[in-house]
Amino acid sequence: MTDVFLDLAPRFLSPDTAKWVTLAVFIITFVFILYRRFNIAYVSLAAALLVVVLGVVKPADAIFSGVDWDVLAIYWGYGMLASFLTAGNIPKWLASRVVSNINQERYALLVLCIIAMVLSSFMANPSVVIILAPLAIELATRMNGNLFVYLIALAAASNIVTTVTMVADPPALIMASQTSMSFFEFYWFEGKISLGTISIAGILVAILVLLWTFRKMTQNVAIEPETVKITWKPVMLLVVSVVALAFIPWENLGAWNHRGLVGLILGLVCLGFAGRNAKEWLKEYDWNSILFLIGIFILIFSVNEAGLLEDFANLLINTGISSPAVFLAIIIWVSVLLSSFIDNVPYTVIMLPVCSMLAASLGVSPFPFYFGMLVGTGMGGNLTPVGATANVLACGMLEKRGYSIKMGSYIKIAWPFTIAAVAAAHVLIQIIWL
């Protein structure tokens, strides 16, 4: 490790000094990301540039080894598909048709939340909230219901599915990419049910809790289905892309073993169908997140090269705890708490190698720790109104309509739902994987 690092380190910094400098850059970057005083993409890119300039990592290593381009390509491709689905009116048609067949308020809202979960499995959560919020507002208005309950439940539901598919959120995609897990293995892996299946089971428990939360909403509702012109092309592309990710034998393709090709081709095909709208889709795409991910990948790569992740893993190992079950509980619930106020992408990139080192020291598979960490950091964003972008959007809509965002009221909706999902997943990971 030392020989490799000396090769990367600048002449004017010793290995120990470079390690402390890298740690300082990392902490300062996290502080800026946490408080969001500046654009977080600029912050992460500046940090990445700094560690390269300091010589902690070589430019070529940072770009080709540090950045996971497969993750970025898939993330971009499904972002374009989300634009195509929206332009094809698929979410609007689905919500209108399904909700119009429900005759009681609590079931209508529950179905709306389930639709949000389904859509968020393949689309960005904020986009789902924006698409479905008008229907939620209309439903609340017709029933003279509490719009606070409608929008907070909608946002929480869209956030809860971040580990249902490998393309639902960057952390799941990063884990799948770094472990070479296929789309199918996300549900069945090494002869056991995998993260996606465990997450679905947890969400089914959470849906029951959500229904209990809506138990007093018993008014009858009647919503006429809208006449919506749709195109099924984006749905067909979704199916084809999922099949490609699941069944192409990527490990046997040699130099072509890059799942990102699916994302790249998917995005280009979507733009081809977009025609005149292609420029608008590209303009509206969340390029900020792509730039943020590039910077974070390079920064965490430098932290690992400096030996800091190994030091952190050794610190956990030397706590005297020898039970994998105890470590699993710590990883899950600490991840839930931390995801309430820190970004889950850098946290995931940091914790994946830490989980690997910890598992190696305990003589167990790292996958229960991977799964637990992802469940915690993915679902835990629901603990606070600012823990996820979808929550921020929902709260903004409420404030514009004169609602006050009270933490007590928020907790009554979001916490039981979220804690039930995490707890159910925790139990399943414990039983099946440890």
Query: What portion of the residues fall into strands of 2 or more residues?
Result: under 5%
Described by strand count, sense and barrel closure, the largest sheet is: 2 strands, antiparallel
Number of domains: 1
Structural class: mainly alpha
The poorly predicted ranges are 1-12
Strand/helix succession: HHHHHHHHHHEEHHHHHHHHHHH
Strand order of the largest sheet: 1-2
| Rough outline | globular
Euclidean distance between termini CA atoms: 31 Å
Mean pLDDT: 86
Q: Helix proportion of residues, in percent?
A: over 70%
3D structure, described in words:
- This protein is mainly alpha-helical and 434 residues long.
- The protein has one domain.
- The protein is built from 21 helices and 2 strands.
- It has helices at 2-8, 15-35, 40-53, 59-66, 69-87, 90-99, 105-120, 125-143, 147-159, 170-178, 195-213, 233-247, 260-274, 278-284, 287-305, 308-317, 324-338, 344-362, 367-379, 389-400, 407-433, and strands spanning 188-189, 192-193.
- The protein has a two-stranded antiparallel ribbon with strand order 1-2.
- Strand 1 and strand 2 form a beta hairpin.
- The protein is globular and about 70 Å long.
- 44% of the residues are buried.
- The model is unreliable at 1-12 (pLDDT under 50).
